[in-house]
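thread from #wetlab-drylab

HS: before we spend reagent money on co-crystallization trials with nicotinamide-adenine-dinucleotide, can we at least see a predicted complex? here's what I'd submit
DV: go for it
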Amino acid sequence: MKKELLSKIENRTIVAGVVGLGYVGLPLAVEKAKAGFQTIGFDVQSNKVDLVNAGQNYIGDVVDSDIASLVKNKRFRATTDFSFIKDVDFIAICVPTPLDKHQEPDISYVKNCAVSISKYLKKGSIVVLESTTYPGTTEELIKPILEKGSGLKCEKDFYLGFSPERVDPGNLIYKTKNTPKVVGGIGKDAAEVISAMYRAVLDGEVHTVSSPAVAEMEKILENTYRNINIGLINELGRLCHKMGISIWEVIDAAKTKPYGFQAFYPGPGLGGHCIPLDPYYLTWKAREYGFHTTLIENSMIINDGQPEYCVERVMHILNRQKKAINGAKILLLGVSYKNDIDDYRESPAIRVLKELKKVGAIVEYYDPWIPEFRNMYGENGKSIPELTFQVIAEFDLVIVTAAHHNIDYDMVQKNAKVVFDTKNVMSNVKNKENVEVL
Ligand SMILES: NC(=O)c1ccc[n+]([C@@H]2O[C@H](COP(=O)([O-])OP(=O)(O)OC[C@H]3O[C@@H](n4cnc5c(N)ncnc54)[C@H](O)[C@@H]3O)[C@@H](O)[C@H]2O)c1
């Protein structure tokens, strides 16, 4: 099986499948098709499937003309029909791994998708989970589902592995194509074949590890590392504020050390589908072993408290203007979870907005990337259409919650009564007398 698959990869006769055509899956499917593989995308959302089949792009990191030409040349198509899995040799699973309302892993998307695949899995296939999850998911959860549903045996009839996705939306240098990849397979042959497939598609280095669990843990380490360092800096930021020291100046100074220090910055909290969620997958799994990941939990406590901390700071700023937060008009700049992207999943800005409203503030937002939002918690909003000096002057306070580059911050400073900048975007603005930084 291994020899045959390696030669099919070499001569591009493998048919590639990507399940879940979101931020991760669509760029991956496009790269596979661009590398010369016939590619089929699977999704449960028919609107995404229809867009792909019409050659239309809906993900920022994908080049519009790539999809259009791949679809036109019949190299790439999408479907909601899982029976086409039988036509596919290599299946990458890129479905969501969110948390439920008790902050516990919601693995139902991965499970449902594995059940759907298992019904049509054929002998000689390769399945790779790319969704971020707890260590053990591939072997303990996916393998038995695939074996039971297909009647096939892992390692003998099909290969299975885990390869974490590292896409960083909006990153102008590192894209799916040139980001190094880690691969862990069940058995050496699986790891070899999966690695060969990624080498055929991507330019980045492919690093093979001894098991899917190592690859799963490695991904959680990457995200937990960020979570904890951001937690540290958010905590230090709060202390610095009390001590009258600028945390931003401290970080700039620390950054001059050429080794042993990596800069992380404070902000209104963590956002996106990865950093705020993934460590919870680990803390949940750790409890199975009677282990408490206390450092991670403490970092979550700090980061989860940032939106409320920002509201507290807003309250103090308004207080100095002899203004109560209850009834104050506040303009929030940016609701995406990070700068220059259209993704607002788990956005801390939306939590700040919610907390401000809770204490009676009248809040509107402006975000050139997000004209409107509606999230899984039933919260929704619409951006004011244009950021003019008249609009800014109407508000008692402007709070910057995303560091978008396409906003004129000089104009904001000049026309705002007072600004609370949680992202230090006003650092280059000349006059800072009405600006307070987090
Ligand atoms: N977005 C990122 O920056 C990023 C980075 C690295 C890793 N990840 C991880 O990658 C995974 C996917 O994240 P994403 O951001 O692409 O999510 P997403 O929500 O953008 O896309 C997931 C897609 O899967 C589809 N889907 C859900 N259930 C399905 C099923 N049973 N069968 C077929 N399709 C199904 C959804 O309709 C959606 O289109 C997550 O585990 C995430 O943690 C995301």
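DV: The radius of gyration is 24 Å.
HS: ok that's useful, forwarding to the group
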